[in-house]
Amino acid sequence: MHFITVKSYDELSRRAANLIAAQVNIKPNCVLGLATGSSPLGTYARLAELCAAGDVDFSAVTSVNLDEYVGLTGDNDQSYRYFMDHNLFSKVNIRPEATYVPSGVSADPVEEGKQYDALIESLGGIDLQLLGIGLDGHIGFNEPDDCFTKETHPVALDESTIDANARFFASRDDVPRQAVTMGMGAIMAARKVLLIANGQNKKEILEKAFFGPITPQVPASILQLHPDVTVIFSEN
Ligand code: GLP
């Protein structure tokens, strides 16, 4: 594992964007696993700048996102599809039809999860998976549990996750209670993992996840078993 502590969110964003751009430049038709949350916003803005400057070309890239809230359609401005469209996909030259986000409105989320995993497999797996980390150690929306779940699956969100994500909604009551998330199978099969975390309040969970016991109670701790993980952390 490569654990990089940087001095500012701007530095974190530039470093993360550089790594993603390097991946795309090395393999123009790569599969990027992408994430939402506050942490990747600066990375996505920087990628848009690099793309506009001609330093990276997304025209052959395919993306698969980690997760989506149950009950939200892609035109809902709180959905992760909407987030990705507005913060990255519309700002770079990726083909819209090559961007995938799990559906939050499937009648059969378990079957939908199987299809999402089959899609990832048919793409040849993920070359680089970008992750954030929740305060409870979740990655994607893999919440603390008694076991790690391999498949893309529906999940009930923890109260702490609902609290943390309430800032994006008009009120806490508006935060969906369920989500669909990529499981640990596809994440751990990614050839490279890049986890970014920003803020003093992430320090404790990062220590637990990367230097503590490997346990499904701290879902990100499974990444200790991954052969190629880079963590970029900014306290500020
Ligand atoms: C959400 C997302 C996660 C993300 C987490 C942390 O819960 N589902 O994928 O890692 O938020 O977000 P932030 O980066 O805003 O702290």
Key descriptive features of the protein:
236 residues; alpha/beta; Rossmann fold; seven-stranded parallel beta sheet; three-stranded antiparallel beta sheet; 10 strands; globular; binds 2-amino-2-deoxy-6-O-phosphono-alpha-D-glucopyranose
Fold and architecture overview:
The chain has 236 residues and is α/β, with parallel strands linked by helices. The protein has one domain (2-234): Rossmann fold (3-Layer(aba) Sandwich). The chain is 31% helix and 18% strand. The chain has a seven-stranded parallel β-sheet with strand order 1-10-9-6-2-3-5, covered by helices on one side. α2 (41-52) links the parallel β2 (31-34) and β3. α1 (9-26) crosses α2 (41-52). The longest helix is centred in the first third of the chain and has 18 residues, at 9-26. The chain is globular, with a radius of gyration of 16 Å. The model has no long low-confidence stretch (mean pLDDT 97). Bound molecules: 2-amino-2-deoxy-6-O-phosphono-alpha-D-glucopyranose (GLP). The site of 2-amino-2-deoxy-6-O-phosphono-alpha-D-glucopyranose (GLP) has 14 residues, from α5.
